[in-house]
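R.M. (postdoc): so does anyone remember the format we settled on? I'll just put the structure tokens first.
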């Protein structure tokens, strides 16, 4: 049994916590981009994913993804309930349970990513049902294909931290659900502006911070691969910020905070599969390309008339595709392994072809299964909320709460639950009529 590596163990413990922080960061990022009357429902989808997927991972998810191999398609289910892992020792210097815990955080955020495509119109209960079924039928098996000894990894496809298993996987499912649920009331004629850009920026900052655990933590040790991943993650995100806002400046006349944050996330998505395989100059090129292309890809939903509320397809699916394919051009053999030089570094086309196989396989599988699950839920118990609930505010309809209390008396929420009445404001003579409509 390998001896415990205390340094690697400390780093992966930290990385697991960083990756978990990304899901509340995602809730803030998505929540800030929605309307004020649907922000709680949006954030609850992320927190619901934390609760549900964490338990499924222990029950059987880890076992499907990482215990043994059955025909390159699924695990052998030898670790159901994580039984036997308390005494199973270490692998590569890490406790087996720590590896399981680190990978759990990936499963959680992958499911949560999907929710941004269906903001403003998805019922919470059916969302949890979809999340559980999709995680079981798609994420857990695909994680095995890519990282658990399955056919994609054995084929030689390179995906260091989740370009296929996380981002293309979630982006394809997001596209499927956007098609199943249909367009929001009033889209695309009405403008669905973000209700809280500072909240959105805070969420993006937390995602950027947590992404160092996501990418550098995937090295499995505090080593050179982690160092390369860290610097490449930073410079790719930085270049993507500039790439996105340059497109905005040329197309719309002004760069925006939403564009800068979206560009950062696009760059982080693009570098995820490639972070340990590129030199920093290659990472900068990848980030700039990803930021610019994803900014342009946002327009696809208007061309093809699908309502992807928060541009999950443009950022995660397109960004994941770009990052995965650019490995075939920008990989450096000394980092990516023997025979894995990219085209720009003297390699042949074989690596690019393998990357394309991985991209297409995950994209098609996730889209088809997500569409079937979403369609079945919509036709049975109903996935989309009613038109009245959508117009009046899905937060109140689904959760009996409002993110912001605008009444003159206040004292809602915990005060009301405790039976504490708020002190009424002193009456005064009205001067001019005051409109009741609030932003969003």
């Amino acid at each position: 049994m390998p001896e415990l590596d205390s340094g690697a163990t400390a780093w992966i413990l930290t990385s697991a916590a960083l990756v978990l922080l990304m899901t509340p960061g995602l809730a803030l990022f998505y929540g800030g981009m929605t309307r004020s009357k649907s922000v709680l429902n949006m954030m609850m989808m992320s927190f619901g994913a934390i609760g549900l997927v964490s338990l499924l991972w222990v029950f059987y998810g880890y076992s499907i993804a990482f215990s043994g191999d059955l025909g390159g398609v699924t695990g052998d289910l030898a670790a159901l309930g994580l039984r036997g892992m308390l005494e199973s020792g270490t692998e590569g210097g890490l406790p087996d349970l720590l590896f399981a815990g680190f990978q759990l955080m990936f499963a959680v955020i992958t499911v949560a990513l999907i929710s941004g495509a269906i903001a403003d119109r998805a019922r919470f209960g059916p969302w949890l049902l979809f999340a559980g079924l999709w995680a079981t039928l798609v994420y857990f098996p695909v994680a095995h294909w890519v990282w658990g000894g399955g056919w994609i990894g054995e084929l030689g496809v390179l995906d260091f931290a989740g370009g296929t298993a996380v981002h293309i996987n979630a982006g394809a499912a997001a596209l499927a659900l956007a098609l199943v649920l249909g367009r929001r009331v009033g889209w695309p004629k009405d403008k669905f502006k973000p209700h809280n850009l500072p909240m959105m920026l805070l969420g993006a900052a937390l995602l950027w911070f947590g992404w160092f655990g996501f990418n550098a933590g995937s090295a499995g040790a505090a080593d050179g691969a982690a160092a390369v991943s860290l610097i490449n993650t930073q410079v790719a995100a930085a270049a993507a910020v500039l790439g996105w806002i340059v497109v905005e400046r040329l197309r719309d006349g002004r760069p925006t905070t939403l564009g800068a944050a979206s560009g950062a996330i696009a760059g982080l998505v693009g570098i995820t599969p490639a972070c340990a395989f590129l030199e920093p100059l290659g990472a900068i090129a990848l980030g700039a390309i990803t930021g610019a292309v994803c900014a342009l890809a946002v327009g696809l939903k208007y061309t093809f008339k699908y309502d992807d509320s928060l541009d999950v397809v443009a950022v995660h699916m397109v960004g994941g595709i770009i990052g995965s394919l650019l490995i075939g051009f920008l990989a450096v053999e000394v980092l990516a392994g023997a025979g894995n030089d990219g085209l720009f570094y003297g390699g042949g086309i074989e690596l690019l072809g393998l990357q394309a196989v991985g991209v297409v396989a995950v994209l098609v599988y996730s889209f088809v299964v997500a569409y079937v699950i979403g369609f079945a839920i919509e036709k049975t118990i109903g996935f989309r909320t009613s038109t009245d609930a959508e117009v009046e505010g899905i937060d109140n309809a689904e959760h009996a709460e409002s993110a912001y209390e605008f009444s003159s008396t206040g004292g809602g929420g915990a005060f009301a639950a405790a039976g504490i009445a708020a002190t009424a404001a002193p009456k005064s003579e009205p001067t001019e009529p005051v409109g009741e409509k609030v932003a969003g």
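R.M.: ...and that's the designed sequence above, right after the tokens. Also worth knowing: The first strand starts at residue 90 and ends at 91. The chain is about 65% helix and 0% strand.
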